[in-house]
Amino acid sequence: MLCATPAQSVTVDLVARLLPTDGAEAIIGFDTDIDGTTAIIAGDSEGALLVDLSGLVSVTTTITPPPSPPDGAFGAAVAIDGRRALVSSVNPPGGTGSVTVFDLSGSTPTAVGTLVASDGEANDQFGRSLALDGDIAIVGADGAGAADGGAAYVFDLSGPTPTEIAILDPGPGASGSDFGIDVALDDQLAIVGADVIQAPAGDSQAAIFDLSTTPPTKLPRFGPELPTTNTPVAIDNGVAVIGFLNQPGGGIAVIDTALDPSDPNFDRRLTPETPIAGEFFGTSVAISDGLILVGANDFTGGPGAAYIFDALTGDELGRIDAPNGATEDSFGYQVSLSGNLALISALGRNTPAGTGPGAVYVYDLSPLTTPVPLPASAILLIAATGSMIFLRRPKAA
Q1: 253 SS3 class
Q2: What is the dihedral of CA 253, 257, 262, 268, to 10 degrees?
Q3: How far apart (Å, rounded) are the C-alpha atoms in residues 285 and 306?
Q4: For 357, left (φ over 0), alpha (ψ -120 to 50), or beta?
Q5: Cα–Cα nearest to 233, from 167, 186, 168
Q6: Per residue in 269-300, is it b (16+ CB within 10 Å) or e — as a string?
Q7: Contact at 8 Å (CB) between 283 and 269?
Q8: Is 255 helix (H, G, I), strand (E, B) or coil?
Q9: Can you count the helices (H) and strands (E) in the chain?
Q10: Which stretches within the chain are classed as H helix?
Q11: What pLDDT digit, counting tens, does each position of 276-304 carry?
């Protein structure tokens, strides 16, 4: 159910509820991704689910580990773009982690390559997060690097063998920052989220990199530096969405017209129409074709929710409540968006009768008027005390 703003009377449809294929053996929904009408869902340590949503009728295929199983929990994180998918195996104690590349062109997914870190060490958490765009993949390893500050690895998948082409790091002073806890990629722009970052003045919790240069160029900080415990990231058409999970609250939105770290003034501030106490607005974020989806997983025991925004105006288009509305559903833990199709995971929900190994809900957002896509020059930041900050990157001289 969508709770729309007072000015609107719309309803978005819940078209599918996806469950583990083997009952309680796996917890699904720790990570999700969608491209067009094909979704991929992480199954914790039990592989991943590939879901065909064409015609809004789900057909599910289980992606299992390759014949030579990688170390770690296969199915920790997932990514999909076109007919290629990534599934990670985050390392067990003493392991390094890896990512398996799958070709989806055939009747069943086929493992065609493996991604590993060139400088991998034990407990790097390589594969904690994944992003895929065309022939470029990014793998987050939030325990890698100096003083476990974290890193993100960039791979070129165009050749017969995947090639590591860059390592992105948070810079000095980032000890224990969990840099790489989330990653996002669109064209030549990559964003890497962090957890608690001990950064020098002028830096920020998340970093954006231009991959068109060699080595990649870390762009100037965007947005204010806020205390945070998690920074989920998303990007589409050059528009970045960053979540700052630092305290309960419905959140505010701030719109700026210039990317100027020295200017604390913003054009407009927005708040959710009906903020709910205890929600962690910004637990997860997604953006596609001018729509923004923000998860508000309720860690205090509430059911959770997800909010939809117009990326051009910042207007809230509505709130999607947990279908069952039960406590500890963790609805909104993970969100993904492609066109009008949205995925929202609920780690604590399986059946209407009680909690279980999680579920992923699929919504058709087509009843909403699709906003005009943002120009590629815009940069958007969601800070989830949660704050939403719209920032525009200066045009090149």
Answers
A1: strand
A2: -30
A3: 9
A4: alpha
A5: 186
A6: ebebbebbeebbbbbbbbbbbbbbbbbbbbee
A7: no
A8: strand
A9: 0, 33
A10: none
A11: 776 778 888 898 988 888 888 876 667 88
Q: Is 147 helix (H, G, I), strand (E, B) or coil?
A: helix
Measure the CA–CA gap between 209 and 217, rounded to whole angstroms: 5
pTM of the model: 0.85
Q: Tens digits of per-residue pLDDT, 148-183?
A: 788 999 999 999 999 999 999 887 766 667 889 999
Q: Angle 38-44-48 (CA atoms, 0-180°, nearest 5)?
A: 30
* 124-154 exposure pattern, b = at least 16 Cβ within 10 A, e = fewer: bbbbbbbbbbeebbbbbbbbbbeebbbbbbb
DSSP state for residue 249 in the 8-state scheme: B
Dihedral sign, CA of 356, 41, 20, 47? negative
Q: Which residue has the tokens 């005390």?
A: 385
> For residue range 226-247, what is the model confidence (pLDDT) as tens digits?
555 567 888 887 777 777 665 4
**Contacts (Cβ under 8 Å, ≥6 apart) of 159:** none
Whole-angstrom distance, CA of residue 362 vs CA of residue 343:
5
239 has which bridge partners?
236
Query: How many residues are present in the chain?
Result: 397
